[in-house]
From TrEMBL:
Name used for this protein in its record: tRNA (guanine-N(1)-)-methyltransferase
Keywords for the protein's UniProt record, in alphabetical order: Cytoplasm, Methyltransferase, S-adenosyl-L-methionine, Transferase, tRNA processing
Chain residues that bind S-adenosyl-L-methionine: G113, I137, G138, D139, Y140, V141, L142
Listed HAMAP family: TrmD
Entry-linked Gene3D superfamilies: 3.40.1280.10, tRNA(m1g37)methyltransferase, domain 2 (1.10.1270.20)
Lipoprotein found in the keyword field: no
Protein species of origin: Herbiconiux flava
Gene Ontology BP, a term: tRNA N1-guanine methylation
Compartment(s): Cytoplasm
Domain tRNA methyltransferase TRMD/TRM10-type: 1-228
EC number: 2.1.1.228
Length: 231
């Protein structure tokens, strides 16, 4: 998969060199290419923002550098409609299902906004040649899209076949079956007066599965009842 990221902080994405995604980049499974939005400006100060029409606080990102940056990263071919994702607290909420869907694509483009946002015409124009989505990683406000894009790249990247060594570890985790995951234990069997639940050491796989399922349900009911279907 190829991922292009347009940002005024390309160095933010240096951390993708480490851990599993770094390995995937080195082996060629995943190509992440950051682009500096300021490289698409033509003034001495490399200006990317301006005051909002209609007034109000803050600055708005100018359309011209965005237009040129997207011209560079979007394919010419009219049939190749890649997904362009703009992280935004005003977007639809990113989920595991969305990560899985996006992990099946060949090409993703992320556009990181800063300041009060990006001129609306950038989205409208991009929509003529790509599938444009505004996506939020949660109901809180970040200073810009970079951290949100990092989170999305990690969630999507680990679902690309070959990135996570043991694909089975992807199956039994939170959100994959709509529930939160069960608690995990390892050796020693007793630690600081706290014992591992005996069922996990019983060797009875059926009983272990039933216990884990019950733990998932109990935890989801307690912590995230919104994930459960209405009764
Ligand atoms: N940019 C600022 N806040 C954000 C959020 N919650 N999700 C995605 N992008 C953002």
């Amino acid at each position: 998969m190829r991922i292009d990221v347009v940002t005024i902080f390309p160095e933010f994405f240096d951390v993708l060199d480490i851990s599993l995604l770094g390995k995937a980049r080195r082996t060629g499974i995943l190509e992440v290419v950051p682009h500096n939005l300021r490289d698409f400006t033509h003034d001495r100060h490399r200006t990317v923002d301006d005051t909002p029409y209609g007034g109000g606080a803050g600055m708005v990102m100018k359309p011209e550098p965005w237009g040129e940056a997207l011209d560079e990263v979007l394919p010419e071919h009219p049939d190749a409609r890649p997904v362009v994702i703009f992280p935004s607290p005003a977007g639809t909420v990113f989920t595991q299902a969305m990560a899985r869907e996006l992990a099946g694509r060949d090409h993703l483009v992320f556009g990181c906004g800063r300041y009060e946002g990006i001129d609306q015409r950038v989205f409208d124009h991009a929509a003529t040649r790509a599938e444009v989505r505004l996506v939020s990683i949660g109901d809180y406000v970040l200073n810009g899209g970079e951290v949100a894009v990092m989170a999305m790249i990690e969630a999507i990247g680990r679902l690309i076949p070959g990135v996570v060594g043991n694909p089975e570890s992807l199956v039994e985790e939170s959100h994959e079956d709509g529930l939160l995951e069960y608690p995990s234990y390892t050796k020693p069997a007793s630690w600081r007066g706290l014992d591992v639940p005996p069922v996990l050491m019983s060797g009875n796989h059926k009983a272990v599965d039933a216990w884990r399922r019950e733990q998932q349900l109990e935890r989801t009911r307690r912590v995230r009842p919104d994930l459960l279907p209405p009764e």
